[in-house]
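To: structure desk
From: M.T.
Subject: fold request, one chain
Message: Could you run this one when you get a chance? Sequence is below, nothing fancy, just the single chain.
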Amino acid sequence: MAGEDHDLIDRIAQMLRDAGVECEILNLVPTDEAVLRRDRVVIVLALTLLAALAWSCLLWLSVDMDMGGMDMTGLRTIPSGMGLMVPAHMPWRAMEFASIFAMWTVMMVGMMTPPAAPMFLIYAGMGRQSEAQGAALSATVWFAAGYFLVWVAFSLIATLVQWALERAGLLSAAMAFTSNVLGGFMFVAAGLYQWTRLHDVCLSQCQMPFVFLMRHGGFHRDAPGCVMLGLRHGAYCVGCCWTLMALLLVGGVMNVVWIALLALLVFLERVSKGNLISKFAGIVLIAAGAGLVSIAM
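Reply: Done. C-alpha cells follow.
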C-alpha cells in the first residue's frame, strides 16, 4: 500500500510540474524536538546579533554625521565614523563611494534582518525534517547569504543614485532632498506603488514563507541551490520594499528615526495577513506627498 501511495504522489507531482508548478516531494523523517529548538535558538541569536551590530553601526555613523550645529556650508560629511568632511564641490573619491556603499549595506541588513527571520527559521526546520538533517544549519547560512546578496546589490544601486543626486545638487549635507516638490512626488510615487499588482505579488511571497519554499522546490541540499533560492526570495523582498527604501533619500539617509519608522512599516507588512497595512500606508504616503507639494507651491 505504501508503494501505491508513493506512485500516486509521484503522478500528482508530475502533473503539477507539467502544469508549470514547481514542487518537490519531501521525505520527512522524525526529528528530535530538542534539536529543532536548538536550531531555532542558534538562528535567532545569530540574527539578533547581526541586527544589533548593524543598528549600532548606524547609530555610530549618525552621530558622526551630526556635527553639533557646525556650519556645514560648502562641505559634506563622509559617513566613516571618523568625522571626515570634504568640500561639497569636489567629486566623490573612491573612499567616499566605498563609505556610502557600506552605509547602505549596513542599513539594509539592519532593516531587513527582522522581517526575514521567519523565513530562515522555517527553512532550517524544513531541512531538519528532511533526509538532509545534518545540512540544515549550513544550508540556512547559504540561503541567508543569497538573500542578503540581493540587498548588497540594491545598496550598490542606491549608492549610484545618491551619487547622481548629489552631483545634481539635489541632496543636502544630511543626505536628504533639498526640494520639497521632489520629495513630495517621491512620497506619492511610493504610496501609489503600494497599490500596484506587482507590489501585492511580491509581498505575498514574503508573507507566506512556507508556501514560497514549496513553490520553489522546498529545501535544497546543495550550496548553489540554497544561494539561488535566497536570491529569488531577496528579489521578491526588493520588489515589495524598494520604493520605501527610496524614501530614505527624502527624510535623510542617516536619520535614524526615519530609518526605524520605515523598518517598522516593512516589518508590519511582512508579519500581517493580506494587504491592509500596505494599502493604508499607501494612502498616508500619498497624503503626505500631496502635503509636501502643496507647501512647496
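Reply (cont.): The chain has two domains: 1-27, 31-296. Let me know if you need anything else for the meeting.
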